[in-house]
Amino acid sequence: MAHALMDIVVPTAHQQQQQQQQQQRLVFQSLADITAAATSSALISPAVTVCDRLVVEKSSLNQPFLPSLRTQLGSLLCKPHHFVRSPPYLLVWTLYTATFATANLAETLGTHAQVDGKTTMAATFASTFLVNAGVGIWKDVRFAQLFGSSSSTAAAAAVRQSTQLLRRIPTSTYSAFLVRDAMTIFGSFSLPGPVAERIPDAVTASPALKTLVAQVGVPAAMQLVCTPVHLLGLDLYTRRESLGWRARWQRIGRDWFPASVMRMVRVLPAFGLGGFLNREVREASHL
Fold first, then answer.
1. How many domains would you assign to the chain?
2. Could you give the dihedral angle defined by the CA atoms of residues 156, 159, 165 and 166, in that order, rounded to the nearest 10 degrees?
3. Which residue range forms the structural domain that includes residue 134?
4. CATH at residue 108
């Protein structure tokens, strides 16, 4: 009987030690996931912030891209310490930190729980989309509030901004941004794999290069479809009066191409360079 009890106790103690080590490893990897997300987001957020502000100002105020771009780049290069503490930068940084951290943590938890790859991939996509959509819509609404109106004096601007903060956000604006985010996440995570498999060998025979082409090209091309939905959401927020769809689509058509180009440029650092940096830092810290 004593030997039987010892046979039971010894494995249990060993299992407890293993569980403790696994829990410690999970905590360490989770902290590494968040660190990787915050670091990669900090590096890509300046470019994304500039692009997002240009799109909002073009749609709402019809400001030319180049003068506004020079102003934003001047602020970034001449006063970087002010730029990285500004509300627009912090909004973008929060969005991508939350997005990358969610994807990292979902994958880490799936691996820790020994869930099969397909289930982990589906859970990662679903959780990343929900977080990206929720935080992204909040960020876009704040951008519309910050840059969607102009005034002649600083005092008038302050009053107008305070009034806008109290304005109810239309459900139609939230809906448009939600559809846009669904298409963006789908084009960034679900489509590149199947597209890479269908790239003919005449283009490139290297599987790695096929994956690279698809991962960069598909999210960028998807912006041609996402941008009109994005512009519609902005227009529904900034022009709340009863307008026919023809009037709204005229403005969307006017801004579609330049805004699409800007969103393509935005996607490249966000889901291209940002995703690469996040993955590399995460994998290095998990060793």
1. 1
2. -130
3. 33-285
4. 1.50.40
Beta carbons within 10 angstroms of residue 256's beta carbon: 16
Q: What single DSSP character describes residue 148?
A: S
Q: Which amino acid is at 197?
A: E
Query: Which pair of tokens denotes residue 156?
Result: 């008038």
Which pLDDT tens digit goes with each residue over 163-195? 454 457 788 888 888 888 888 888 877 787 788
pTM for the full model?
A: 0.71
Kindly tell me the number of DSSP H helices and DSSP E strands found in the chain. Answer: 11, 0
The Cα 140–Cα 177 span in angstroms is: 8
Altogether, the residues listed in the chain come to a count of 287
Let me know if residue 177 belongs to a domain: yes
Q: Which tokens in the block code for residue 81? A: 């310490």
Q: Do 179 and 129 touch, CB atoms closer than 8 A?
A: no
Question: What is the Cα Rg of the chain in Å?
Answer: 23
